[in-house]
Design a protein that fits this description.
The chain is mainly alpha-helical. It is 57% helix and 0% strand. It is built from three helices and no strands.
Length: 70
């Protein structure tokens, strides 16, 4: 394609489309601040963790308290 017919914005548009296609655009935290972060961490907390059951229980209690503090 002759240089006079090239669209310089095409490369930027293509790059952004590629990044969007391979990344998740949804934020992990929907609500800004500690409450939103606590909800996101709580949602990701599973039984498969290096924490002991007592530590997991305590962490869950703290995250629940922070999440309710919105």
């Amino acid at each position: 394609m002759p240089e006079s017919e090239r669209d310089p914005a095409l490369l930027t548009t293509l790059r952004e489309a590629m990044v969007t296609a391979v990344t998740d655009e949804k934020p992990a935290v929907r609500t800004a601040g500690p409450a939103g972060a606590a909800r996101a961490l709580r949602a990701g907390l599973t039984d498969r963790t290096p924490l002991s059951p007592a530590e997991r229980h305590l962490l869950t209690e703290w995250l629940d308290r922070l999440a309710d503090d919105a």
